[in-house]
């Protein structure tokens, strides 16, 4: 089973591009991706509660895993939505500090990361260690950086030595040897397949997967095992 850690539905307000759940499902089927963790752009941009309900409904309909987004511009509301996610047994939260124009150095970010960690949640973070890593360090946080570029892979490897909960998505690790470098220094437990299908060229990521010389047990972790673990799912 191939599970994608970076799925988005909804309308992107700046570009006007839209991807409803049925369109995403069709795209995943064409790419032979079985599912994954889905969040709503509505929740990340302007209406947290209805957006998260949209993601939960889509996840239930298509057999995906729901991801709740929070609005960092409203830290008190974000805290409340995190509690609602915990009540609904949702283990994945998506943070979008850049999209919401919240600096990675904002104190609220670190405070909310601490709260999510106390709730036992994994954070899917739009950004990289360069942008927001400092806010995540030293808290025992479980984090997947969705936008870490190969150029900054060395920084992640250094931080990962002291941060066992830090993980990366494959999406921007497209340079030859990037996956192998990460596996050599941090292990396959730190890498999750992520394509942002429909918003990014998912086949580029899948081509790299198929061309890699991964051992079967490494491949299993990367294409789904790690995400299942972080999402609290057995299947």
Which features characterize this protein?
17% strand, 235 residues, 10 helices, alpha/beta, 45% helix, TIM Barrel
CATH topology: TIM Barrel
Query: How far apart are the termini?
Result: 9 Å
Strand order of the largest sheet: 5-6-7-8-9-10
* Structural classification: alpha/beta
CATH class: Alpha Beta
Instruction: Please provide the count of β strands.
Output: 10
CATH superfamily: Metal-dependent hydrolases
Model regions low in confidence, pLDDT < 50 over at least 5 residues: none
How big is the Rg?
16 Å
How would you characterize this protein structure?
The protein is α/β, with parallel strands linked by helices and 235 residues long. The chain has a single domain (3-231), classed as Alpha-Beta Barrel (TIM Barrel), CATH 3.20.20. It is built from 10 helices and 10 strands. The strands form 2 sheets. The chain has a 6-stranded parallel beta sheet, with helices on both faces. It has a 4-stranded mixed beta sheet with strand order 2-1-3-4. Helix 4 (75-87) runs parallel beside helix 5.
Briefly say what this structure is.
Helix content is 45%, strand content 17%.
SSE layout and pairing:
Elements: E1 3-11, E2 18-19, H1 21-30, E3 35-40, H2 41-45, H3 48-62, E4 65-66, E5 68-69, H4 75-87, E6 92-95, H5 107-118, E7 122-125, H6 129-136, E8 142-145, H7 153-160, E9 166-169, H8 178-186, E10 191-192, H9 202-211, H10 216-231
Parallel strand pairs: 1-3, 3-4, 5-6, 6-7, 7-8, 8-9, 9-10
Antiparallel strand pairs: 1-2
